């Protein structure tokens, strides 16, 4: 939704192979169908990623590095605000992990 979806839509319009990295499978599938329908670009795909889980970030990065011949652009757009204080299963504060640690780790892992 929001800025991330607009960026993905514009990339797909420019015929770029585009990976939607979404936390919610349902919302991700809806965005995937909408972007493919609007652009005709079949090279748009959905992969699940929760930047609030460092395990999810590591799994996502591993799969992208293994399956994609190259990565030209990364848009770190996910973020949350206003959540009640909570600790992740990895012992980290949820908002800080989702907004900072997860994207930082993802960027560094994808640099190869």
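Sequence proposed for the structure above (112 residues):
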């Amino acid at each position: 939704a929001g800025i991330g979806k607009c960026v993905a839509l514009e990339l797909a319009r420019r015929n770029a192979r585009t990976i939607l990295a979404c936390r919610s499978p349902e919302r991700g599938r809806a965005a995937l169908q909408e972007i493919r329908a609007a652009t005709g670009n079949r090279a748009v795909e959905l992969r699940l990623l929760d930047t609030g889980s460092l395990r999810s970030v590591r799994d996502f990065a591993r799969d992208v590095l293994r399956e994609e011949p190259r990565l030209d652009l990364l848009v770190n757009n996910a973020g949350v605000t206003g959540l009640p204080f909570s600790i992740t299963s990895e012992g980290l504060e949820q908002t800080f992990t989702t907004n900072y640690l997860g994207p930082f780790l993802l960027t560094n892992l994808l640099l190869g």
